[in-house]
Design brief:
Bound molecules: iron/sulfur cluster
Largest sheet: 9 strands, mixed
CATH topology: TIM Barrel
Shape: globular
CATH superfamily: Aldolase class I
Distance between the termini: 30 Å
Number of helices: 9
Helix content: 25-40%
Length: about 260
């Protein structure tokens, strides 16, 4: 079966345990203001106009974003690093975009990975119908689960979708006892004040199993893409968080007994 990806990253250190390969699926139902990969949101292979400045000259060009790949070909890439996974306790992480936008392709590559005894992570927004998630549960060792904003209205404003389904799916996964690492993008003026942290905590406190937490401090590395692809950048004026505020948030969750890592 064929799917559409937009990148494969080898030697990834922050997308689950050990050293991993991260496969980025194309397509995302969200539209986060801070998205670092805006070119990944469409689920199709696209030819995008790009705008660069070279030696003070504006240059217009085109770039193909995404490629179709067969599951067997993808497994060939993944298995190149099998020894590294074994030695480091790593494996493969399917990320995006949102990998559940291509549920059948995701299911197929996950089952192939398990056939080869490769550890699997799915990095998801959780914004999906439950049946698609349930189908991949037996083949997914770890879910990296995004919580972007605890407040439903703000979630809708900053990502384009509500968080109700996301929270419901999180609770269902927790009920099944799946290993979950929560990923929180930590963004000044958007979700970083104490009231937001308390609301995140209230959501996590409802879970039966204590998940690990990864705080992902907002950074501007991807912002050049908005110029490059001539897309509106909604993050003007939002700065990267200070080390002090990240440390505060880290201790906030650690004081409640969570294991917290920074970055990812
Ligand atoms: S979920 Fe990720 S890929 Fe999708 S819009 Fe948000 S930041 Fe971008």
């Amino acid at each position: 079966m064929k799917g559409i990806i937009f990148d494969i990253k080898r030697m990834a250190l922050h997308d689950g345990p050990g050293i991993r390969q991260t496969v980025f699926f194309k397509g995302c139902p969200l539209g986060c203001h801070w998205c670092h990969n805006p070119e990944s949101r469409s689920k199709n292979v696209m030819c995008l106009k790009v705008f660069e400045t070279l030696n003070s000259i504006e240059v217009e060009d085109e770039e193909i974003v995404g490629r179709e790949i067969d599951s067997v070909e993808l497994m060939g890439f993944i298995q190149r690093d099998s020894l590294i996974y074994e030695e480091s306790g790593g494996g493969v992480t399917f990320s995006g975009g949102e990998p559940l936008m291509q549920p059948d392709f995701l299911w197929e590559v996950l089952t192939l990975c398990k056939k080869h005894e490769i550890h699997t992570c799915v990095d998801t927004t959780g914004y999906s119908s439950w049946d698609k998630i349930e189908k991949i549960v037996p083949f997914t060792d770890l879910f990296l689960y995004d919580l972007k904003h605890p407040d439903n209205e703000k979630h809708r404003h900053f990502t384009g979708v509500e968080n109700i389904q996301i929270l419901k799916n999180l609770s269902l996964l927790d009920e099944l006892g799946k290993e979950i690492w929560i990923r929180i993008p930590f963004i000044p003026t958007i979700n970083d004040d104490e009231a937001d942290l308390l609301k995140f905590l209230a959501i996590l406190a409802k879970l039966k199993n204590k998940p690990e937490i990864s705080l992902l401090p907002y950074h501007k590395i991807g912002s050049h893409k908005y110029t490059r692809f001539q897309l509106p950048n909604l993050m003007h004026g939002v700065e990267e968080p200070s080390g002090i505020s990240v440390a505060f948030a880290r201790h906030f969750f650690e004081n409640e007994g969570y294991h917290v890592t920074i970055g990812g």
